[in-house]
């Protein structure tokens, strides 16, 4: 993964030999260039901000491994809709978090706790958007991903509107998914890599039952699903939920299960037709994403490196900097 090495080399040069202006200039991509590696240290506004975040994430993680998939989903839901501006954290009857696609989002309390700590140490300085990016990085690292550089200096958005939430359903076709990622400046490699977040976490059966019982309105299962896996899934997700029962949850990657660890087994499962979601299995039906899935299933290191790079790119989508937005004092409310 040559790209990643270039990227890291640029980061390292920026940190150790150049001042803040140059550190900004050597980073990658137009949007990433607006951010700075170790912004709060470089500008001397909250030298230990990243340590404070990491400490809190470690404390939460000890009690609950599921914070990793929850933070990943929260970050994705924030960045893909109106950019990484923490708009997903704002409360209100018409805010993004009230959109149907964002039902079941968690980890808000983790961000709140980290924000309280940072407001005590460095009042009014560290944005909620940066906290979300840093906390997610630390949580995926604890789960087995590399600790990639998170560029900081984001500011928090002033608006959050549920009508802007265009997150696709997990039954989306490959073409639609690709168009969606491309509209955010991400590539086919980024898409195949970021979907690897489904290496952990859980989903509702309602997102799976179509492919188990009524694929493409045929009244039959998707014929490509492995037979053994199909009967396993059918047990966990009955064709219709029994009366009065809450809708069951299933692991997105049964191999990782309740350990919620970060592995490349997500890609091996795609190759053996054992993906839980249709969007995951579709990576097999395009030559480019099939090749990427093969590469990642064979080399965990390649997946880890690509993940670091794609997460950095996702974290830079439409960021607010300089005098845009604000630094919220409470992540759930505008100042
Ligand atoms: C779904 O059904 C339509 C109409 O029968 C067909 O054209 C299309 O190829 C099918 N899609 C898949 C993914 O099988
Ligand atoms: C991930 O968790 C599964 C299930 O607990 C376990 O079998 C596997 O060894 C773990 N992998 C790593 C890399 O920790
Ligand atoms: C997965 O499904 C595809 C398409 O139906 C098939 O060509 C392939 O052989 C299957 N792979 C495995 C490991 O069963």
UniProtKB/TrEMBL annotation:
Binds 1 heme b (iron(II)-protoporphyrin IX) group per subunit. Substrate binds at residue 168. Ca(2+) 1 binds at residues 78, 81, 83, 85, 87, 96. Residues 1-25 form the signal peptide. It comes from the Eukaryota. InterPro entries: Haem_peroxidase (IPR002016), Haem_peroxidase_sf (IPR010255), Peroxidase_pln (IPR000823), Peroxidases_heam-ligand_BS (IPR019793), Secretory_peroxidase (IPR033905). GO terms for biological process: hydrogen peroxide catabolic process; response to oxidative stress. Its main location: secreted. The record marks 73 as: Transition state stabilizer. The keyword Cell division does not apply. Its EC number is 1.11.1.7. Pfam families: peroxidase. Removal of H(2)O(2), oxidation of toxic reductants, biosynthesis and degradation of lignin, suberization, auxin catabolism, response to environmental stresses such as wounding, pathogen attack and oxidative stress. This is Peroxidase.
